[in-house]
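Sample pair:
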Amino acid sequence: MEQRLIPERFRVLSGSMLKLIAVFTMLIDHVAANFLQDAGIVLFRVFNHDVTLYYCMRSIGRLAFPLFAFLLVEGFLHTHDKKRYGISLAILAVVSELPWNLVHEGKLFCGTQNVMFTLLAGFLALCAIERFKDNAAMLFVVLSSLFVAVLVLKTDYSCRGYCFVILLYMLRNMPVVRAVAGSAVLPSLWVGGLAFVPIAFYNGKRGFIRGRFWQYMFYAVYPVHMFIMYLFKYVIQ
């Protein structure tokens, strides 16, 4: 039985609200990473250390990946068609690769891969856990192969992101342990761990983002916003 951190009446965030939070924090993070790294805009000082706008925006952006990973696990648990879900993730990862390459290195190919490949590997790992739950040897081979794949391909968030997805799934009924262990796995530690605050207020409902059209629009935000940022960088340069 799932533990309850927040009383039911206070769990007011639907899956749609978590998606919006994930998208907006991602946009904040990517704007800072692409346009403010060298701006040097100081907001205030703490113990003689400058706290810049860039740092604050990147810190806010650390919430995005844990939320997307959590939503991936929720989608895996509740989808009626895992095959279509996986194919959609694979298509999104491939489509996103060109804008990822352009915005990061300004060319068609680069040495790293976008985060959708990390999420896809995590999704395939969950499928393997479900499919080979009675075959430990095969499960080990599949999970290890996916682990090596994200390392070799140099996907965004790499093996930590991959392991984070698996951890969220395995500890889905233990939210306290999930939050502590998840924060330790994330590269940004406690900053990214703050994503477990909105997760604690999740009510398990889908929310207002319904139907294939709006779901695909949600998916499209990732490649489209990167391509727009590339165009801005191109114009500025």
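The mean pLDDT is 90.
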